[in-house]
Amino acid sequence: MTDGWNIVVCVKQVPDADDVTIDPDTGTLNRSDAPAVLNSPDRNAVESALELRAAVGGTVTAITMGPPVAKAVLQTAVGAGADGGVLLTDRAFGGSDTWPTSLALARAAAELDADVVICGEESTDSSTGQVPPGIAAHNGWSQLTYVESLEPRPDEGVLVGKRDVEGGYERVAAQLPVVVAMEFGANEPRPAGLHRKIFAETEFEPVEWTASDLGIEDQVGLANSPTKVGGMDTASPVERERVVVDSVDDLYEHIEEVV
Amino acid sequence: MSVDIEAYEDVWVFVEQHDGVVAPVSWELLAKGRELADETGEDLVALVMGDGVSALAEAAVSRGADRALLADDPVFEPYRADPYGEQFRALVEERKPSIVLIGGSHTGRDFAGRVAVPAHAGLTADCTELDVDDEGLLLASRPTFGGDAMATIKCPAHRPQMATVRPGVFDAGDPTEPVTDPAAAVEEVDVVVAEEDTLSTVIERVVGDVVDITDADVVVAGGAGCEGNFAPIEELADALGGEVAATRAAVDEGWVEPARQVGQTGKTVRPQLYVAAGISGAVQHLEGMNDSDVVVAVNTDPNAPIFENADYGIVGDLHEVLPELTALVRAKQEVTA
Ligand SMILES: Cc1cc2nc3c(=O)[nH]c(=O)nc-3n(C[C@H](O)[C@H](O)[C@H](O)COP(=O)(O)OP(=O)(O)OC[C@H]3O[C@@H](n4cnc5c(N)ncnc54)[C@H](O)[C@@H]3O)c2cc1C
Ligand SMILES: Cc1cc2nc3c(=O)[nH]c(=O)nc-3n(C[C@H](O)[C@H](O)[C@H](O)COP(=O)(O)OP(=O)(O)OC[C@H]3O[C@@H](n4cnc5c(N)ncnc54)[C@H](O)[C@@H]3O)c2cc1C
Q: Where are the domains of chain A?
């Protein structure tokens, strides 16, 4: 593979966690109030994709599934250095759980002839972490999750990932194509270059694909999602004393009552 | 696409093991699975995969499983997503479980996300409550948006109904009365994967003992405010006979081993006393400690959110407060000794 790898990076637009509120009357989330941002773990995915491109050559294409405004996260990825972006947008995708979401991303990655798909560890809004293994499963590709660092071996058609596992780590050699989920905080995401950022915001236009472009219009959306949110309850907050004491002696007395 | 849901029955628990050692979360889920199976009137089935692990299948029976399915082959050691996934797919197709519970460890989440897709199963992540309704439908509840809300997720038209649960959320309980012949309830299944068809190779595995902080009565946790010096945390934990824990920030810095991380992507602890020192109180951290009886906070910033989530707090430098506290604890111990 002299012309390098086709690297696809999955980026998700999420509400800024600090600004989501719960509607006290309906118990539902007011996501619309919150400004939408790039899922912060996906910054590690983008950085990792750019590092991989530097090591083996090729291209980095960012993809996102979401409403038209999700274009913003593709702009962020392109500003950081991605070569291009694809926006999967269609009303048919609405209400998708992780099964159809990973199907759409899997089909798009296959369409892009991906060698490596890089994702974040999990999203900050629904935080399932199920999409990266889901993409791999839909395509029958190998997978590497909770990855701390990557070591490409282009001559062997293999990507080695150092994975964080219970009690230590392991290094796993995965055949291409492979889906990677980078561990949150695994690297230091680079800031966007000024010129690249201007390009991303003024000239860059993503490629847009609908569900029927991907041939999956009958397999996505709420109707094709196995999980259904059956109800949302406002959780009763834990009651705490919230006593602030002035001296360590006072603090000690409270601790002594417990132990 | 929906399935004939009547054809699916039984509650399965995936018994995660590495090198013949079972991840404690698997026993926690087996205890929870027992309750669910009793409610639906179905069998509780332990799924054990590995190489030379029949003793673990028997242990699962002794811990309350009605039966155990054992896939025993060198291809299953160490864990890899693709052979485990392929074997699971074949078993689900053939045996049709109604509910499958999987630990929310890195391994469990790697596995669950992969196997839910070919099964076209609904998979709910990070559940903190599991129940069944009148029709035997699994009600999987998970906190969302920093614990402000609980979403209950159902899977009405698809099977199996799958859920992952983080370590420490449920109690493992004690093994039930010894079973006379546990081996009789273990069924060895056909292995459907061959090594040459696998897509990955584990070239190195470096793991030590994994500490389990989830049962501790006292937990002393440190965060970024420790600035690399965890000695005050360790000494107070030692004096109180508790376990050391940490935020993800402290773990990422390498100051503390990952098994001690408390929070959404770490462990859930419910000690009598939780001391949070140099910890700001991010929602992802609070999620793992909110069930503690009494929370004590030490932080230099009076506006740190941790004070809103603590019973007793002191505004101060942990490098001064904790050693003083440790000295008081030790002094008291000497008097009573
Ligand atoms: C309260 C609530 C709870 C939910 N719980 C569940 C549940 O338990 N099970 C379930 O199946 N669904 C659940 N959903 C639906 C879930 O929001 C969607 O499936 C979601 O779009 C994808 O899952 P995630 O955000 O958890 O992705 P994760 O798997 O956490 O994301 C990991 C990585 O995958 C990539 N990725 C994920 N989504 C996209 C995207 N749209 N575009 C590009 N890249 C992406 C990113 O790289 C991301 O870092 C829930 C929704 C809500 C509102
Ligand atoms: C997907 C995802 C999953 C996550 N999962 C987890 C998780 O499981 N667990 C977790 O903990 N976090 C998790 N996080 C990270 C979380 O959002 C916070 O970043 C993290 O908890 C902050 O850790 P901290 O409180 O140690 O650090 P900081 O937020 O930096 O706080 C340090 C605190 O120490 C105080 N301080 C400084 N010096 C001193 C001193 N000398 N004495 C006393 N106090 C001092 C400061 O005032 C400050 O309040 C996750 C994040 C994401 C995006």
A: 5-230
Q: Does the beta-carbon distance from B152 to A133 stay under 8 Å? A: no
Residues 6+ apart with CB under 8 A from A202: none
Residues of chain B with CATH 3.40.50.620: 5-197
The architecture that CATH gives domain B218-336 is 3-Layer(aba) Sandwich (3.40)
Ligand 1: list residues with CB < 6 Å: A 10-12, 39, 41-42, 45, 64-66, 96-98, 101, 105, 119-120, 122-123, 125-132, 227, 229; B 123-125, 144, 151, 153
CA distances from A209 to A46, A79, A96, A203 (A): 21, 21, 16, 19
A29–B144 CB contact, under 8 Å: yes
* B148 chain-A contacts, CB cut-off 8 A: 22, 234-235, 237
The residues of chain B that CATH labels 3.40.50.1220 are 218-336
- Dihedral angle computed from the Cα positions of residues B193, B195, B196 and B197, in that order, rounded to the nearest 10 degrees: 40
Q: Quick one: pLDDT band at residue A20, thresholds 50, 70, 90?
A: low
Contact between B60 and B200 under an 8 Å Cβ cutoff? The reply is no
Measure CA B49 to chain center.
18
A156 within 8 A of A164, measured Cβ to Cβ:
no
Interface of A with B in 173-232 (CB under 8 A): 173-175, 184-185, 219, 224-232
Choice between A231 and B220, residue whose per-residue pLDDT is larger: B220
pLDDT digits (tens, 9 = 90+) for B233-263: 999 999 999 999 999 999 999 999 999 999 9
The CATH architecture assigned to A5-230 reads 3-Layer(aba) Sandwich (3.40)
Q: What is the pLDDT of residue A238?
A: 84
With an 8 Å Cβ cutoff, are B205 and A165 in contact? yes
Query: Positive or negative CA dihedral for B253, B256, B258, B262?
Result: negative
Pairwise CB contact (< 8 Å): B200 & A174 = yes
Ligand 1 atom with least separation from CA of A132: 34
Q: Which residues in chain A have Cβ-Cβ distances shorter than 8 Å to B252?
A: 185
Closest listed residue to residue A180, CA positions, set A146, A139, A151: A146
DSSP string, B126-185: S-SEEEE-TT--EEEEEEETTTTEEEEEE-SSSSSEEEEE-TTSS------SPPS-GGGG
CATH class for domain B5-197? alpha beta
Residue B33 or B5, more confident: B33
Q: How confident is the model at residue A19 (pLDDT cuts 50, 70, 90)?
A: low
**Residue of B113, B118, B206 lying closest to A129 (CB–CB):** B113
Nearest to B26 by CA among B117, B105, B126: B105
Q: Give the Å distance between the CA of A19 and the centre of ligand 1.
A: 19
Residues B254 and B171: their CA atoms lie apart, in Å, by 29
Average pLDDT, chain A: 93
Q: What's the gap in Å between the CA of B177 and the closest CA on chain A?
A: 30
For A145-183, how does the pLDDT look when each residue is reduced to its tens digit (9 = 90+)?
Answer: 999 999 999 999 999 999 999 999 999 999 999 999 999
